[in-house]
Amino acid sequence: MVPYLNKPKIGYRLGLLLFLVSLSGCRVMHTLPKMPDVSLPVSFAGSDDSTTIGRLPRQTLFADKNLVQLIDTALTQNPDLRMALQRIEMAQASFQISRGALLPSVNAVAAAGVDRYGKYTLNGVGNFDTNLSENIVGQSRIPNPTPDFFLGLRSSWELDIWGKLRNRRQAAYTRLLASQEGRNLVVTALTGEVARLYYTLLALDAELEIIRENEALQQRAVELVNVQKAAGRVTELAVQQFTAQLLNTRSREGGVRQEIVDAENQLNTLLGRYPQPIVRGQSIEDQKIPAQILAGLPSQLVRRRPDIRQAERELEAANVDIAVAQAEFLPSLTLTPYVGFNAFRVSSLLDPASIAAGAIGGLAAPIFNRRLLKGNYTISVARSREAYFAYQKTILTGVSEVVSSLKGLDNYRNVAELQRQEVAVLRQAATTSNELFVNGYATYLEVITAQRSVLDAELALIETKRSQFLSLVGLYRALGGGWE
User: Fold this and answer.
1) Would you say 202 and 196 are in contact if contact means Cβ atoms under 8 Å apart?
2) Element (H, E) at 138
3) Integer distance in angstroms from the first to the last C-alpha of the chain?
């Protein structure tokens, strides 16, 4: 009677199992909060040309082979870039974990247990009555205490009936793409920083050369004024003034030397190596800036710049997290099937008659922990909004940096041209003051002033030249150049 009565139950359970499995093909689409679009200007600084130097390879933009070699070295040895690659590895592992959550977990199980049933319990009375049956003989009799041995496979599978697990997988994949953009961002920043330090070194070398040339001129001026003093044409005060100016210039040389050491050490750190001399190419005065520099369109900036692309990926992932948080309010369906050998005697465990199989499906819906789920949902929404504002800020920063660098190139080009004229005039004035001083038509203060003016003007011209190249590097980085 008992086996006959169980047949309808088996059919009912099988039908229920098939129904629950069919639910796994369903997916409830959750409404994500609509985020406002980020408005972009039509062009940069009035230019509507779609060509951009951000697409140029660094070998094309930077004509100095020494600089290109330094950048290549940094891209293979820089610690920050290596850390970025490890972040990609972690993101890939997270994506694989999220993919695995969609599949059932299967475990090989070898388990043993024992139960002693009380005399006045359902199992105790049932087992006692079963052992009195004429059909139960020998190894089939149930001992008390009753061992329980199992050798086989057990599985647990949460069916993704609401798309929660697939959304988690999508969020993990989007964050994987964001980590790859993060690596590109490091490459772009590294390229720009190496170039910045390299041009800084060239500028410092030029400053050091200018200072040395002026030291030589000032040393001859000191010798001349000493001759003038011996002839009674000037006083000791003039000698002291010329000497003080020479000492001041020598002190500048020491400061520039230290700046060179600092810049070389910073550059070596980016290259992933200990301090050593940096090989330089042409002087900064001989380096050429491209005659035509184009920035393209702001719409291209959004598609190329790595930090903007990374922020966009993070925003997408944050929006998907909201759908996951919404699905947490809905019931989750879990199946726990098993198959293997099950017996209460070790000697009968591997008998084909001991093969057992079954499956249990259960729905679990949150009731008392809804405050926790509401809190998680609120956090997800807030993170999504934060990601949007970060995305908006990144675009604003990118557009501002491009415009600043473009204007800087134009303005510094004009400044450099005027400073070249100023240096030419002041050099002529210094020569004239020396001649007039020798012939007694100019005072020593006029000579000192002329010499100091030449030195300051020449150093200012080098600084402007450096600013031109830094604007070029800044524009290249701001346009997302160098990572392809």
Assistant:
1) no
2) none
3) 76
Q: Strand 146-159 relative to strand 105-115: parallel, antiparallel, unpaired?
A: antiparallel
CATH of domain 31-102+174-330+371-478: 1.20.1600.10
pLDDT(56) > 80: yes
Q: Tell me the C-alpha distance between 359 and 1, whole Å.
A: 24
Domain edges within the chain: 1-29+106-159+332-364, 31-102+174-330+371-478
Residue pair 476/192 in contact (Cβ under 8 Å)? The answer is yes
Supply the pLDDT for residue 21.
Answer: 47
How large is the average pLDDT for residues 50-62?
A: 86
Structure tokens, 373: 């789920």
C-alpha–C-alpha distance, residues 210 and 219, integer Å: 14
pTM for the structure as a whole: 0.83
Q: Answer yes or no: is pLDDT of 389 > 70.
A: yes
Q: Quick check: helix, strand or coil at residue 343?
A: strand
Positive/negative CA dihedral, 286, 292, 298, 301? negative
Torsions phi, psi for 113 (to 5 deg): -155, 170
**b/e burial code for range 349-381 (CB count within 10 A of at least 16 → b):** beeeebeeeebebeeeeeeeeeeeeeeebeebb
User: 211: how many CB neighbours lie within 10 A of its CB?
Assistant: 21
Per residue in 164-202, pLDDT (tens digit) is: 899 999 999 999 999 999 999 999 999 999 999 999 999
Burial class of residue 88 in the structure, from the number of CB atoms within 10 Å of its CB (0-12 exposed, 13-18 middle, 19+ buried):
middle
Q: Two tokens at 75? A: 């891209």
For CA atoms 40, 42, 44, 45, give the dihedral sign.
negative
CB half-sphere exposure, 352, CA atoms < 13 A: 0
For the chain, percent of residues with pLDDT exceeding 70: 91
Run of H or E residues at 271: none
Q: What are phi and psi of 357, to 5 degrees?
A: -150, 150
CATH code, 1-29+106-159+332-364: 2.20.200.10
Element (H, E) at 357: strand 355-358
Omega into 352 within 30° of 0, i.e. cis?
Answer: no
Confirm if 181 and 310 have CB atoms less than 8 A apart. yes
Helix (H, G, I), strand (E, B) or coil at 279: coil
